[in-house]
Each structure stands twice: as C-alpha cells, then as structure tokens.
Amino acid sequence: MPKNVEGLTNISLSSDSEHDPAVTDAAAAGQAISEQENGESNKDNNEFGNEVFNSGDGASNGIVNGHHVHNYPNSTEPLDEAEEAHCLIDQILDLQKTLDDLTSRMDSVKEDNLVLKSENQVLSQYIENVMLASAAFQQSSPKSRKRSRNMAAKLVGYDFWQQTLKSPKYIVAPMVDQSELAWRVLSRRYGAQLTFTPMFSASVFVTDETYRKKMMQTHASDRPLIVQFCGNDPDTVLKAAMMVQDSCDAIDLNLGCPQNVAKRGRYGAFLEDWGVIFRIIRTLRDKLELIPVTAKFRVFDDVDETCKFAKMLAEAGASVLTVHGRTREQKGPSTGLADWEKIAAIKKCVSVPVVANGNILCFEDIDRCLKTTKADAIMSAEGNLHNPALFSPNFKLPVTQAIEEYIELCEQFPASLSSVRAHVFKLCYHILQYEKFLFLREIISEMKTLADVKNLNQTLKNALEENKLFVDGLKGDLQLSVIYCQARVRCSGESKDNYPKVRTDQFSREDRKRTLAQIQAEHGNCSVRQAKQLMRNPDKDFSKATRPWIHCVCRQPKSRDCMHELCKICCRKFCIENKVACEKHRMKVLTSQNRIDGIAAAS
Q1: For this structure, is 257 an active site residue?
Q2: Active-site residue, from 257, 362, 428, 582
Q3: Hey, is 582 helix, strand or coil?
Q4: How many CB atoms lie within 10 A of CB 77?
Q5: Using an 8 Å Cβ cutoff, are 327 and 298 in contact?
Q6: Which of 66, 211, 327, 543 has the fewest Cβ atoms nearer than 10 Å?
C-alpha cells in the first residue's frame, strides 16, 4: 500500500484538525483511491462473486470480498468534517484489506500460470516424442513392429522358468518326425505343460525354404514352445534361431542325439568339441534379443565328467538343462535304463532349472523321478508316444479314442503320412502283439490318406468288438487291458516299480549277426530284412501273395492288359526285338505299307 494512504490510518480526529491542510489532502487522496478501487472491484465483480446492495437507511453500502464499503449518504445535508473524516478512514481501511486480498489472489494466479506453462511444455514435448515414434513405426517393417511390441527384458534362468514357462512339470520331448504340431496339441489336451518341436537341422533350415515351411508349424494354443536345432556352427545355428525367435519361447541345442546320422554330421551326442559347444550357446545367449537358449544332452559314463559338462553349459549361458539319463551308447536293443543318480548329481552342481528325462512309463514314475533327482520337471518321449494321456492321473485313454482325436487334429494341422503311420503303430503296439490282430499291420503299412486311417480305426473297433471275450483277458506291459494306451516296457520282467539293472535277454552285436546269418541259412538264404522279421515273428510266412498282380521278368509288376504280360519297359524292348505289336503300350510294327498309308493320310 502507498505510504500516503498507509499514513492516513494515524490521523487524529480532533477539532483542531478541522482546517488542517493535511486532512484535506488525505481526504482527497482517499476519495481518489476509493473511486479507482471501486472501479476495479466492479470490473471483477463477476469473478469473485461480489454483490452490491442498498441498506434501508438510504446510505449506499457495498460488499467487496466480504468487506463493507461505506459511501456517502444520499442525503443532501452536508456532513461536518469529523463525520466526513471518519467515513473516509473507514473506507481506506476496507480498501486496504481488499487490496491485500486482491494482491494475494494475483500472486496465486501467477503461480497457477507458471504451473500450467510448465505442464504445457511437458505435454508439448510428449506429443512431439509420440509423433516421432509414430513416424518411425510407420517406416518400420511389420516384423520389426511385432518385435517392438513383444520386446521386453529377456529373462533367463529361474526368472525365465517361472515367468515365461510358468514352472512346468510335465514336458513332451523333442522327437524327430513325431512331435509335430498335431501331436503336441493332443498331448497338451491331456496334461502336457511344455512341448518341443522335432529336432531341426540348422543348416537345412537356413537354406531350404520348403523344409522350413513344412517343419516349422505352430499355433496360438501351442505355447509355451521351445524349438530345437542341431548343428556344429555358431553362425548357422544363430541364423536359424533368428528365423523363429518370434514364434517360440526359447531355442534348444540338441547335444544328445545318438543316431548314426548325428555321428556322420558331427552334431548331437557326437559333437565332442566343448569349445564349439560353448561358442554356440554363448552366441545364442548374446545375439538373441527376445528369447534365451537351453540345452539337452546325455550323461557320460563318469559322473564327474557329466557334472563338469553341465557346469560348462550353464556358464556358457544355457537357461535350462535337460538331462537324458542314458549314455549315447544306450540306444536300440541296448537302450537299457536311465541313471537318475547322475541327474541328481547334476542338479546339485548347477544353479539353473534341470529337467529329468528317462524311465517315465506311467504317471507314478513322475513322483519317483522327482523325489530321486530333485529335478524341476520331467520329460517323456517314448512313454508319451504310446500314451498321450501319460500326464493325466487315474485316466485310461482308449486306443480307438486316441486315434480318432489325433485324426481330427491332423485334419486341422496337416502332418506327414509317415508321422501318422508311426503314431498309429505306437498306439496300437500292444494290440498288434496278438495273432488275431496281425492283419492290422499290413493295413497300417499301406495307409496313404487320412481316410485310410479312419477306415483302420473303424476296422479296429469292429475287431475288438468281435473278439470282446478274448480281449478282456489280455493285459499290456503295465497290466492294463490292451484296449487302453500304455507305455511299452522294453526289458523282460521290467515293471513300473522294479527296473532291472541289466537286460538279461539283450543281444550283443556279434550275437545278433550270428543269429541273422543262422536264420538266413535255415530259410533258403532269405534277405536280411526277412531274417529280422523272422527274428521277431518265427511263424511269419513269406510264401503268401501279398500283391494281387503278376510280376514281370524284371520282378516289377506287369502292366494290366499287356499282350505279353510284361511291364512297359520290358514290353517295349520285346516288341522292337521281335517286331511285334502291343495295343496296351501302343507299340506297332512299322512296314512299307504302313509308311505309304501314313503319307497318304497326311496328304
């Protein structure tokens, strides 16, 4: 407040000040200030909600911000100087309060303006960033857009196991040509929580687009999913992994395949260079942006070497280790039993999740394996092939129902016919061990379409119904009726509760060769293939005609309606050499008269 206005509050209202020039000047100044403030107050009247009203005594009174402002009475009677000074001072005091209030309000408005200005600047910067990001998004490719949407901090180890995979307990193993999409979906329907694709060759996957499209099939319901590759070159495996990292949850490196093809290709269990293995896993760990890498391997004969190998894989960057408790020599007739004690030793020496694989034939085996190995989960391969409901406790899945559901899934998710035949044979394994159902083997081998598979399933239903009394007394390896899916027990006397340590009926390689040679000699030097069939079924009769047609001299089927009962190639040679004709194969004897007739017809 101005000093000349502030000083007016101390004016004495004595009679001696009646003609004091200071009082006169103060009154004039106060009136000027009052008129100015009243004008501003009326201007802002709507903003602050002030009201002006007249009191009943004829004096004009007002309220500005809750303070009374007194104006001169409307009466024409002159006021004495004391009354006039008193009114003036009251007005000045009220105006001072009003001015202070207005000043504080103006300061508050300035602060609000500063806050709004700051918020506007932040909002403007945010809008600019959004526009730049939108422009970059429009210029990016669809694949990079999808990657940007899914991009998050890559999880590894137990974080990956718990958050991405949801701590699975039941896992279906990767199986060449047999863990295709249709079978994975069927396994999930009966309790599987995590599945693997079949093993893919990284080099073929990178170079062959047809192979890539045929083999890599997935679906929204097929998650979580791990894709397995085999290979011995870090860059090649990385290129293959980059092609599928948007469609799966992890990449698995196969270090356990014991087949001869793996030996020739130097991968799987025959990739013995630990340095190469380390570089492959470390490359995948560092270069894959979205998903981690895992590894599956077989144990060694020495438990210390096995633990050392597992530590190397974990140090290289494998987020999960799947351990098959058999060595690479344990395959085919020498499969034997998995060693759970070695898996338990590996679990103790690494800090990443461990999955136990081997000896899982029924649901009761799962708890036994987890208690023995302390593993985080179990994996099943052959047990799952014989019984896709392996992970469903107290549930018996009829063979015919399993085939029917699998056919329906194959119609939705196409599978190769070789995979279909293999699955059907595994499901029917225990039924096919009896003579009354041996005819089904030939039907399975000759299936060429899904319609044929449906016909087989109907034939199987009819055969089981016709032989109901006979079938009711048949038990499989797990003491269930053969009409239900159940795993195959490889060893004689082997059961789910007591596995023998050594197979008593196991042939060595030399014994097997001698046995095959003896069988060939006893059956008129039959082929090795026939000798193997006779080893499994000594009563097999090869004299029966399995084909309805007659054979040509070259042992190929003859052409139907051929005049000489030969195949097309042999008939052609026979007609040329003997100058004879064959209407079936459109072979004619060309003579001079034929040439003349042909020229005449052409003209």
Answers
A1: yes
A2: 257
A3: strand
A4: 5
A5: yes
A6: 543
